[in-house]
Amino acid sequence: MRAPVTNRGTCRRWNSSRVLVLLWSIATISKTTSFRFVTETHSLGTVDGRRSATTVVAAGMSSLATDASTGCKENSKDSASLCADRDARAYHEFVAAAVDLSDAHCRTDNNRKNHVLTVIRSVRDIDQNKRRGFLYHLPLTLAMDGDDSTSIPIPPTELHDDVTVRLPSPSGNRTAIFRKEAIADDTTKRSQRQVLEIWQHARLERRIVFDTSLHGSIVNDGGGGGFGRPVWNAQETALVYIAERPPPVKPVSFFETTRVDQSPESPPEQRGGQYTLGYGQTEKWGEKYHSQSALLDLFCVAIETGKVGRVENVPGQKDNGSTLGGYTFGQPVFAPDSSAIVYVGWDAGGGGYMPRRLGLVYCQQRPSKLYLSPITQLWKRLSTLSESDDSEVSDEPFTCLTPDHRISRSPQFSPPPANASDGTSLVFLSSKDGFDTHSGCLELHGVSWKQGRVVPDSHSVIVASVGDPGKEQPTKANGDVAGLSFPGLFLQQLPENCFVSGTHLLINTQWGSCVKVVRVDISTGRVDLLPCGNPISSDELLCTTSDGGAILSRKLLNEPTSILYVSGTDLQSNNLASTMKVQSSIQMEPIAGTSFSAILNFPRLDFSCEIHQTDPPKVNGVGLTIPIQSVLLLPDAEQYPKPPLIVVPHGGPHSCSSTSFLPSYAYLCGHGGYAILMVNYRGSTGFGQDSIESLPTRIGELDVKDVIAATLKVQESGIVDAERIGICGGSHGGFLTGHCTSQYPNLFKAAAMRNPVVNIPSMVTSTDIPDWCYVEAIGSYNWREYMPPTSTSIRMMWDKSPIRHVDRVQTPTLMALGMQDLRVPPSQGLEWYHSLRSKGVPTKLLTYDGNDHAIAGVKAEADHWVNIKQWFDNHLKN
Fold it and tell me: Which of 30, 32, 622, 751 has the fewest CB atoms in 10 Å of its CB?
């Protein structure tokens, strides 16, 4: 068995080979700025893995190990109020240190020397119960040159709440800002309109007010594999965006007089349709999309004229007067010459695989195909102010590019070559046969593109699906992570502008218990791992640079985000493992999220993070033998020689606990003094498709045995207190928490559950993903026909459910429920809570109105994790 791969975090003793050059003056950084530069001139090498309380602080920087209390310890005489104050202050420190980045863009001058990174950071504001967006302008030149003589700190700027999308153009010369503006007329009545602003550097070029009759809300759903967001064309003359389709009719009451003076643009009125599904009521896409129209269209806007037009040559345009059925569209990109748009179309009931709209978020298996729609005639109409003689001429019909693929998504074009006749490549994620599980291993496909068309017979599989990473694979891959060979591609979508050359692109993918950036050569299919300075860090591409370089982020559970720059020269190397170096590193400072307490220092991050491996238990019918990986956090050994352990099985089940910084678990370990074991049981993403397929029909058995095996190995190692073990999980992690505390009632002394699945038969008709219940418990689902559960299927689901064993539970259990959860209805957690309460098992219920499955409201999230910490304090420490 391999030794664990370890990282001791930001507070670790610096390796002697590590040279840090502070680029900004000490006084300036400590007083005014919210980010700092560190130049890394060392080769990318090993990380010291010992646990230690020693803290060495870079000159002038505030210590990462603060004096924050670890909470109310056993026999503490502190009052409950003082304990609550300490816990709340500590939680504030950890969430203030979190760095969640999006919308990154790097602008380079003509000499390709001076780089400025613009990026948006999302910050939790507990006082206002919302997330605030801050725009940073980070000069990378200073970090690369190592010259701080002229450095001037640039504080971030808060984005106004009415900004829905901020989108720099490819060159950075223009910026598109979409807003929702509240306006008041002379009678003080307020209404809302959608506006597009086009900025050229510091000049506002144009404001375009969108016609409310043309479409509903404009969609910004990028980054997580959703419907996407607006996109520029290469010429920076147009944008394509997604917006809600207007209802085909206007339902009115039977007792309302029909208007005879309707404008031609208004939809016809339908009396008595207010409460009818498909007319006054809409079938939605479930969790996260309850307030958004299910049917979305594509629109183009010409920057010079301000004219907007809908892309009409798309599938399913025969209007039947209802919102049931049809297709919905998203993830659009322009062809290199802007003559066409390539996009994704989801079956919304018109393709035969969606008799009922099912939940879409976190569900990659929903049927989707790639389409091509020419827009030559549409562009002619939009780009001229006057109406042309051929205004009635239609564009050519759409083409389905993946007619025999069940899942296709995330199209991206390679940059155009110097010789336009050479053509480019269109790449996308796909799975020809698809999968029934909610996530799986995707393939990277490509086609050649010339003169506005796909070259016939040019389709190829660039990176194939991987079954078992422990066996010989069809993909040429270099590198391993914690001993695991390349497991295939596990991601939601390709990054925007991900190409660093005509033949190479960068992809973020789950690789075991880490998120890693890989370079793919689309001409050969070769995959290379990018070494970002720590073998077990989680790394992501933020954006590419015009010189073929890349801006990356690096995270660890004991190290908030660092922003890294890698040059184009290094990224073109044939031997990335030995030659690639990080040219610069930026670490952002905390931003306070409440007036309750000040943020003077970083939180305690002096705990270790390692990837722990366990031999998989034998289960009938499962031949997969790769080790079970877990992420293990251990608090400072001198202060906590035998810490209590909290086991964390993730949700999904086809997701993964990674080494990325999560303030909640860092809080429990760094402040609470708990060891944390995040188990990636078989069925987790990032370990090959065979691992995914091993779990359906075996939930409640295979995943439970893996969690218990990993727990027992750590328990028997002597590094934790064997008698003080708790377990904490949400969704499918809550399902496993219920199974573990009922099947192993003497092992766990405390438990916390969040929106858990406990009774699959009672969930199947009330969830937005009934297919999950069938696939995971029974193994299959009828995608073409809606069928209620039968007595046989109910019995099979019952046998897999934790509620079957609830009479055996004696573990004190905290229950947290999002009362607007459409994925796992609150009734599931209430069943468990009332069962334990009636048996006299100590239990506590938290209900969060206005919160859905994730309990991601800022105040609710904060209350939830402080409650969890105190629950484990009461039952594992006191």
Answer: 32
